[in-house]
Amino acid sequence: MRLAVGFVAAVLLLLVAYFVWSSSTRARLDRRIAELSAAGEPMTIAALQPKSPDDSVNAMIELAKASVALNEKTPAWEELENLRDAPAIPLQPLERQIIEKAVAEKQAALDWLAKAAKKPDAVSDVQLTTPLVNSILPRLNTLRWLARLCQYAAMHEFDSGRHDAAIERLTPIENIARAGASHPFLIGALTAIGCRAIWSDTLIQFAPDLKIGTQPGDVTPDQLRRTIAQLLDHRRQVGEYGLAMRGERLMQLDTFQALAVGSLIVGNAAGPGAIPTARTTILAKVARPVIYDNALFCLDATTELVPVAEQKDLPAAKAKMAPTTQRVADTRHRWSKVFASMLMPPLDRAFATHFRQRTDENLAAVALALRWYQVDHGGKLPERLADLVPDYLPTLPIDLISGKPFGYRPGGDDPIVWSVGQDETDDGGSEQPAGRWQYIGDYERWVTKDAVVHLTRRPRAATQPAD
Predict the structure, then answer these.
(1) Does the pLDDT value for residue 439 go beyond 60?
(2) What is the DSSP string of 6-72?
(3) Nearest CA-CA partner of 166 in 210, 122, 230
(4) Residue 238 and residue 311: Cα distance in Å, rounded?
(5) Which candidate, 343, 411, 360, 353, places its Cα nearest to that of 381?
(6) 3-state SS record for 401-436
(7) Which residues contact 272 (CB under 8 A, 6 or more apart)?
(8) With contact defined as beta carbons under 8 Å apart, do 380 and 374 qualify?
(9) Do 409 and 394 contact (CB within 8 A), yes or no?
(10) Does the residue 121 lie in any domain?
C-alpha cells in the first residue's frame, strides 16, 4: 500500500511539475511575443502579410504576364538555356545568333517587362497561412529567368552598338527583385539578391568599352548618373533583408506553436483536410515545455539577428552576430534544444551573400565611373579612386567585405579594381583559385582569392553548345 501510494504521489508530483513547467515557459514566450508586438514587430501572420498597393503602381500584373510569355517553350530559348557556358560580353558568334533569335521569340515578355519598369513598385500577391512553413511562394524561380531575359536582351543591344538601350533593358530587373523580396522570407530576399547580381554583373561586363556621350547609341551622362546612384543606394536591400529575417522569425514561432498543440503537418501531407498523426499529438503532449522553451530561444536569437543587415560592412555584421551564432552553435547537440537545432538554420552564409551582392553593386558603380572618367580624359584612368569624387561618383563606395577602400591598380595593360573576395583577405588583386569556398553563382570573380574587375576588355574562349 505504501509503495502504491508513493508511486501515485510521485506521478502526481511529476504531472504538477510538468504543468507548472509548461505554463511558465508558455507564459514567458507569450510575454516576449507581446513585448515585440508592442514594439511594432510583425508577430502575427496578418501583420506579416504583404500589403499589395494599387495596380496603378504595382507591377505584379505585368510581371505575371511576362512570366506566362516567358514560360512558353521556344526553340531558341531552349537552345540558349542549354549553352555549356553562360553568355558574356563580348558575345561569341554562337551566342549572338542564339540570343538574337531568343530575344525575338520572347518579345511579348520583354514588352510586359518594359511596362513593369514604368511602375514604382512590385509586391507579390502571395497569401500567407499557417503553418507558414508550408506557404506557397509562387514565381520565385521564374523571376530569376525574367532577370536573365533582361540580361540577354541588354547584351543583344550592347553587341549591336545601342548602349543606351542596353542600360534601359536592365531597368525592369529592379522591380523583378522587389517582387521576389516581397515574399517575406529568406528565400525571397535571396531571390532578390540573385536578380540584382545579374544586373550588377552585366553592368560590370559593359563597363570596359561603354559608349558615353551624346551620339546615337551612347549612354548619356544623366542616364549613367542615375544608374550609378541606384547602384550605390542600398536602403532597399537592407529593408528587404530585415523583412526576411522577421519572416523567418515568425515562421519558426508559428511552427513551434503548431508543434506544441500537435497540429503541425508539413510537406506533401499537408493537403486540405489533413489530420495530424498520432505521433505528432503524443510528441506535443510529452515535449510541450521543451517546445515552448526552444521557441523562446529561437525567438530571441533570431530577433538579435534582425538588424545585422543594417551594419555598415561585413566585419561589423559578423561582430554583431557573433554572440548569437556562437550561442546557437553551442546548443546544436543538446537534447534540451533539439527542436531549436532543427528549426534555427545557420544564417552567417546568407548574411555574407547579402554584403557580397552590395559589394558587387559598389564595384559596378566604380567600374562605370572609371569608364566615364576615361572617356572624358582621352582614355586615361585616374591615379586614385578618390579622383572620381564628386564629378563621377557622389561618394567613394567601400569594399563591404573588408570595410576598407577597394584595391585599385590603374597602370599597365590590365588595370583592375578589386574586393578582397569571400576569403576576406587582400591578396593584391590575385585571381588564383580561392579553394573550396561557398558557391555564389555564375561569377568567376567571387571564386578567386580577390574579386577582380578588369577595366579593359579581355578576349573570351568560344562558347560551345551543351553535349
Answers:
(1) no
(2) HHHHHHHHHHHHHHHHHHHHHHHHHHHHHHHHHTT---SHHHHS-----TTTBTHHHHHHHHHHHTS
(3) 210
(4) 9
(5) 411
(6) CCCECCEEECCCCCCEEEECCCCCCCCCCCCCECCC
(7) none
(8) yes
(9) no
(10) no
> Residue for cell digits 551543351?
466
Q: Is residue 31 part of a domain?
A: yes
- Inside any domain, residue 49: no
Distance CA(189)–CA(116), nearest Å, equals 20
- C-alpha dist (Å) from residue 457 to 96, 228, 453: 17, 20, 10
The pLDDT tens digits of the residues spanning 226-249 come to 999 999 999 999 999 999 999 999
Output 406 or 278, whichever has higher pLDDT. Answer: 406
pLDDT of residue 467: 53
pLDDT single digits (tens) 66-120: 999 998 778 888 888 888 788 999 999 999 999 999 999 999 999 999 999 999 9
User: Is residue 343 domain-resident?
Assistant: no
* Residue-wise DSSP of 133-177: GG---TTHHHHHHHHHHHHHHHHHHHHTT-HHHHHHHTTTHHHHH
SS3 357: helix
Strand, coil or helix: what is 399? strand
Question: How many domains does the chain fold into?
Answer: 1
Q: Is the pTM of this model over 0.85?
A: yes
Instruction: Compute CA 452 distance to the chain's CA centroid, rounded to the nearest angstrom.
Output: 21
Per-residue pLDDT band at 259 (split at 50, 70, 90)? confident
pLDDT at 47 over 50: yes
The one-letter code for the residue type at 224 is: L
Q: Is residue 191 within 8 Å of residue 331, measured between CB atoms?
A: no
Say what the pLDDT of residue 443 is.
67
The cell for 127 is 497569401
For residues 2 and 10, what is the distance between their CA atoms, to the nearest angstrom? 12
Containing structural domain, residue 22: 1-40
Helix H or strand E segment including 287: helix 278-305
Please report the pLDDT score of residue 297 as a whole number: 95
Task: Give the Cα separation of 347 and 355 in Å (integer).
Answer: 13
Tell which residue, 18, 84, 114, has the closest CA to residue 442. Answer: 84
Alpha carbon distance 91, 84 (integer Å): 14
Provide the 3-class DSSP secondary structure of residue 355.
helix
Radius of gyration of the chain (CA): 26
